């Protein structure tokens, strides 16, 4: 079972904001507003039993390398590129008694459909995982960074379960892996600008 986050609430540790200055209170309202805006958007998913941060290929490969991989808690084996609550869980990870409250959350899309072929049940699952690294809105976030992460990287996996077997097909997309930018304007297609890297050493490209 995979669930979509239906609602969230920000709970302050402080009962009042009287200790904040006027400028700090404005900043706090701004940050809270941004958080509430992001969390109000659809597309956050989680599962208590199925690792939705990894493709079936990665799970199979890791299981061959480390036999206890599939028995590890979901948050310990999750792919941090697609786990959107990693930072939020940092204080809980160090406390084993709280591990049962840690559930990886992805941002993207999940859909599962069932059908019957020749009298046999078939299940089709589509999962799109949006990377946490270099995420942003179109035009404002472009290109690649020095760590090799491209803007708005998305991994889409199609999974078919049939006759006790599972098959997976994965596609990836992301911004052009160059250091470039595009300033939004009134033009339909703002001109792209390649960054000047002549005086800097970049190690953006890495072996996957």
Automatic annotation (TrEMBL):
Q: What domain of life does the native source organism fall in?
A: Eukaryota
Source species taxonomy = Eukaryota, Metazoa, Porifera, Demospongiae, Heteroscleromorpha
Which reactions does this protein catalyse?
Answer: a 1,2-diacyl-sn-glycero-3-phospho-(1D-myo-inositol 4-phosphate) + H2O = a 1,2-diacyl-sn-glycero-3-phospho-(1D-myo-inositol) + phosphate; a 1,2-diacyl-sn-glycero-3-phospho-(1D-myo-inositol-3-phosphate) + H2O = a 1,2-diacyl-sn-glycero-3-phospho-(1D-myo-inositol) + phosphate
Q: Which InterPro entries match?
A: SAC_dom
Give the species. Geodia barretti
Cellular component per GO, a single term: endoplasmic reticulum
Provide the SAC domain boundaries: 35-208
Protein name from the UniProt record: Phosphatidylinositol-3-phosphatase SAC1
Might you name a Gene Ontology BP term for this protein? phosphatidylinositol dephosphorylation
Cite the EC number. 3.1.3.64
The Swiss-Prot or TrEMBL record annotates one GO molecular function as: phosphatidylinositol-4-phosphate phosphatase activity
Which Pfam families does this UniProt record tie to the protein?
Answer: Syja_N
């Amino acid at each position: 079972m995979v669930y979509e986050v239906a609602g969230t609430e920000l709970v302050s540790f402080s009962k009042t904001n009287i200790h904040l200055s006027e400028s700090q209170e404005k900043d706090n309202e701004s940050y809270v507003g941004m958080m509430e805006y992001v969390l109000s958007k659809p597309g956050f998913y989680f599962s208590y039993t199925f690792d939705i941060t990894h493709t079936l290929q990665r799970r199979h490969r890791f299981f061959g390398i480390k036999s206890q991989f599939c028995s590890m808690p979901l948050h310990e084996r999750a792919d941090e590129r697609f786990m959107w609550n990693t930072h939020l869980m940092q204080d809980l990870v160090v406390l084993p008694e709280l591990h049962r409250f840690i559930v990886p959350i992805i941002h993207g899309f999940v859909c599962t459909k069932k059908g019957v072929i020749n009298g046999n049940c078939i299940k089709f699952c589509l999962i799109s995982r949006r990377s946490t690294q270099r995420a942003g809105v179109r035009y404002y976030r472009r290109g690649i960074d020095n760590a090799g992460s491209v803007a708005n990287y998305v991994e889409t996996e199609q999974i078919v379960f049939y006759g006790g077997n599972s098959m997976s097909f994965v596609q990836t997309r992301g911004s052009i892996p160059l250091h470039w930018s595009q300033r939004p304007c009134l033009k339909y297609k703002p001109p792209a600008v390649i960054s000047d890297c002549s005086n800097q050493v970049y190690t953006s490209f890495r072996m996957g």
